[in-house]
Amino acid sequence: MSLLLETTGLTRRYAGLVAVDAVNLRVAEGGIHAVIGPNGAGKTTLFNLISGLVTPSAGTIWFGGVDVTRLPPDRRAALGMGRTFQNIRVFGSMTVLENVLTGLHTCDATGLFGVVLRLPGFRRAERAAVSRARAALDLVGLADMAELRAGALSYGDQRRLEIARAMAPEPRLLLLDEPAAGMNPAETVALGALVRRLGSFGATVLLVEHDMGFVMGISDAVTVFNFGRRIFEGPPDVVRREPAVIEAYLGPKVAARLARTSR
Ligand SMILES: Nc1ncnc2c1ncn2[C@@H]1O[C@H](COP(=O)(O)OP(=O)(O)OP(=O)(O)O)[C@@H](O)[C@H]1O
Ligand SMILES: [Mg+2]
Asked: Which regions of the chain are under pLDDT 50?
């Protein structure tokens, strides 16, 4: 399997603390790779470093064979990185379709001039964007709700909308930060099936999530963080049995429950 993302010695220091500490992470192309660990372990900071919202104190980030360490977020997005955020970021007064279109930057294609004059090139780009946006809504099961106000959707549907927005540009790598947070059990099961489907649209998924049933049920590889460090990595069935992981994060009860629910 080829390597899609690699960090070497990736580090982010804040005054008095190292949020991400010399992390070497390798993410293979294809499949679902989870990052788990206690609150404050550095998972979101890792995502912010990878997507370019936070600059590293040290280390490098390679994406698709390109050193992106010093590239701004929009350049990384153009290379095929997409993400969602831990806290919901839906524009409630815009329609569902318009929300997805914000992920596509139509204006960049022909420039502001084309937008103002509504040149044919712009209209073509706009039509292409709308059809991509509709395909992304179809992927997450929201095609019928395209014209609704996004704020009228249920919480679970709003989170699916965020995935559609991130998927519309057809990223090679999608970073999902706690997509199941706040979802009810039925929504979480549906989300698991959706995240599995993203692979068939060409996206490798890097996932942060605290719902262990969800993580262990869909992931191919799991990396465990504690105090900014990568403390363990392996397939779900190995990770859930690892004493260091149970001690740092899972606890004996969750580990026992995972053992009962897996084969
Ligand atoms: N901008 C910042 N300034 C100072 N400290 C920060 C900043 N961002 C994150 N931190 C600290 O870095 C550490 C890691 O935070 P981070 O948000 O990455 O954790 P996390 O693993 O995502 O936790 P959670 O599971 O609660 O979302 C925490 O101690 C946090 O307080
Ligand atoms: Mg976080």
From this structure: 107, 109
The CA-CA-CA angle for residues 199, 35, 161, to 5°, reads 50
Residues 175, 255 within the same domain = yes
Query: Which residues touch 227 (CB under 8 Å, ≥6 apart)?
Result: 18, 21, 41, 42
Asked whether residue 165 is assigned to any structural domain, the reply reads no
CA angle 234, 84, 250 (to 5 degrees): 35
Domain containing residue 39: 3-88+171-261
User: 113 and 97, same structural domain?
Assistant: yes
Instruction: Please write the tens of the pLDDT for every residue from 189-235.
Output: 999 999 999 988 999 999 999 999 999 999 999 999 999 999 999 99
pLDDT number for residue 88 = 85
51 within a domain of the structure (yes/no): yes
Ligand 1 pocket residue status of 45, Cβ below 6 Å? yes
Examine the domain organization and report whether 102 and 126 are in the same domain. yes
44 C-alpha to ligand 1 centroid (Å) = 7
Query: Tokens at residue 74, please?
Result: 């929009």
Same-domain pairing of 79 and 97: no
Q: Are 11 and 22 in contact (CB under 8 A)?
A: yes
36 within domain boundaries: yes
Q: Which of 45, 83, 85, 223 to mutate to test the pocket of ligand 1 (most atoms within 8 A of CB)?
A: 45
Question: What pLDDT is attached to residue 117?
Answer: 66
- The strand ranges marked E within 124-218 are 173-177, 204-208
